[in-house]
Each structure stands twice: as structure tokens, then as C-alpha cells.
């Protein structure tokens, strides 16, 4: 059975969500981030970066939430969460996932771990830069969704949407949360309305940013 190492509300959120959305049986291991379990010798064997998520498929451990979404969509094609290989839709799915993993997730990491880019003394500057990069990215997604939404690939939900919704949720306590962009707000409301989202929040014990 697929096994997900997760921590509530973290980067594992979108992977857990997809497993629930697809209705696939899976086991969960909750990683105690506060206790530093992610840096234990046993966990580092599964995830050398010492972060969640890790997904174990057929006995192999895999890392990187964006990549895990693609693996799951390929593994369970009946869920229809990626367009067929070689089509423009599939190309757009790769583009958006890599774009978000490169351009949106890293400034969130800097926002939540502001000492990492340049040390404790530069935390405020790191947060300010992170906020600007996140807002600029939301501007870009807003224009895209307004022109061709309501989802990233148009009228059908796909794996990258679960990644985007997770990242939007991370902005909920920022000065300008994703819900302040109108097309993004519509997207967020659609994603929050999915029955799988309710189940996910219940399973992870989350009460914030629940529809
Ligand atoms: N790019 C990685 C990022 C993973 C990541 O930064 N996870 C955070 C939680 S959102 C984590 O495990 N933090 C604990 C730590 O860094 O000690 C992914 O998407 O899988």
C-alpha cells in the first residue's frame, strides 16, 4: 500500500489530498516536525533533505511534492488528473508544476524560514523579498486564470491545481493572501468545495482556511 510521510498543512498536504481525491488506499506516518523527526537518521535515509513529504511506492521512497503529484497521477490514470502524454494539456501541466516548484514554493520557504536565505540578521529583508515574489506570482496566475480558467489547464481540474491550492492556503496569514485576487478566489473556492478537501482537513486536524 502507498505510504505517505506527512505533517499537517505542510508540503505533504497536496499529496495527501490527491490520495484522498483519487480514492486510493494509503497508509500515513505523521512526522513530528517540532521534535525534529525529519532530521533523524532513519528519516534521512528516506528523504536526504530532511523535509516532508516522502511517498513510498512499491517499497521505493520518493521526494518532492510536485513530483509526487505527477507520479500519483501517472500511477492512477483512471482519476484523470493529467491530460494524455504528448498533448498540449500535458505540456502545460508540466510547465505549471515546475514553474510553481521553482518560482512560488521557494519564496514560501523563505517566508516561513526567513533565516535560511541570509541568516538571522537579514530575516526582515528575506520576508519582504519573499512577499514581493509571492504577490508577483499570484499576479501572473490571476491573469492566466482570468483569461483561461477556472483551473490552471482550463475547464478541468488537474494535478497542478492541488499544488496551487496548497500554496494559496499557505498565504492565508500573509499581508495579501491569495483570496484577495478575484480569479484566484474563485479557483480557491472551487478547490475548497471538493469533498476530498473536507476529508483532508478532518484527517489532518486543520480548522483554518476550511470552506
Ligand atoms: N520542495 C520540497 C519542500 C519540502 C519542505 O520544505 N517541507 C517543509 C514543510 S512545508 C519541512 O519539512 N520543514 C521541516 C524542516 O525544514 O525542518 C517539497 O515540496 O517536497
Question: What descriptive keywords fit this protein?
Answer:
alpha+beta, binds glutathione, 211 residues, 9% strand, single chain, 10 helices, 4 strands
Structure summary:
The protein is of the alpha+beta class.
General description of the model:
The chain has 211 residues and is of the alpha+beta class. Helices cover 54% and strands 9% of the residues. The protein is built from ten helices and four strands, in the order E-H-E-H-E-E-H-H-H-H-H-H-H-H. The longest helix has 26 residues. Bound molecules: glutathione. Glutathione binds next to helix 5.
> Can you list the strand order of the major beta sheet?
2-1-3-4
The outline comes out as globular
- Rg is 17 Å
Mean pLDDT equals 97
Per-chain topology:
Layout: E1 2-6, H1 13-22, E2 26-30, H2 41-46, E3 54-57, E4 60-63, H3 65-75, H4 88-103, H5 105-112, H6 115-118, H7 123-148, H8 159-170, H9 182-192, H10 195-204
Parallel strand pairs: 1-2
Antiparallel strand pairs: 1-3, 3-4
Amino acid at each position: 500500500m502507498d505510504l505517505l510521510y506527512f505533517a499537517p498543512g505542510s508540503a505533504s498536504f497536496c499529496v495527501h489530498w490527491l490520495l484522498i481525491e483519487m480514492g486510493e488506499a494509503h497508509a500515513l506516518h505523521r512526522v513530528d516536525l517540532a521534535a525534529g523527526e525529519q532530521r533523524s537518521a532513519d528519516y534521512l535515509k528516506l528523504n536526504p533533505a530532511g523535509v516532508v513529504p516522502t511517498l513510498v511506492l512499491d517499497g521505493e521512497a520518493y521526494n518532492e511534492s510536485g513530483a509526487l503529484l505527477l507520479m500519483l497521477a501517472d500511477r492512477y490514470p483512471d482519476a484523470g488528473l493529467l491530460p494524455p502524454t504528448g498533448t498540449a494539456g500535458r505540456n502545460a501541466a508540466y510547465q505549471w508544476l515546475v514553474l510553481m516548484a521553482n518560482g512560488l514554493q521557494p519564496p514560501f520557504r523563505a517566508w516561513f524560514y526567513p533565516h535560511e536565505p541570509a541568516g538571522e540578521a537579514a530575516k526582515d529583508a528575506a520576508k519582504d523579498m519573499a512577499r514581493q515574489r509571492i504577490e508577483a506570482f499570484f499576479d501572473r496566475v490571476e491573469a492566466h486564470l482570468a483569461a483561461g480558467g477556472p483551473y490552471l489547464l482550463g475547464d478541468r481540474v488537474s494535478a497542478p491545481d492541488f499544488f496551487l491550492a496548497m500554496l494559496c492556503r499557505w498565504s492565508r496569514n500573509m499581508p495579501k493572501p491569495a483570496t484577495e485576487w478575484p480569479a484566484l478566489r474563485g479557483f480557491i473556492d472551487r478547490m475548497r468545495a471538493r469533498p476530498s478537501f473536507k476529508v483532508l482537513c478532518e484527517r489532518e486536524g486543520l480548522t483554518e482556511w476550511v470552506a
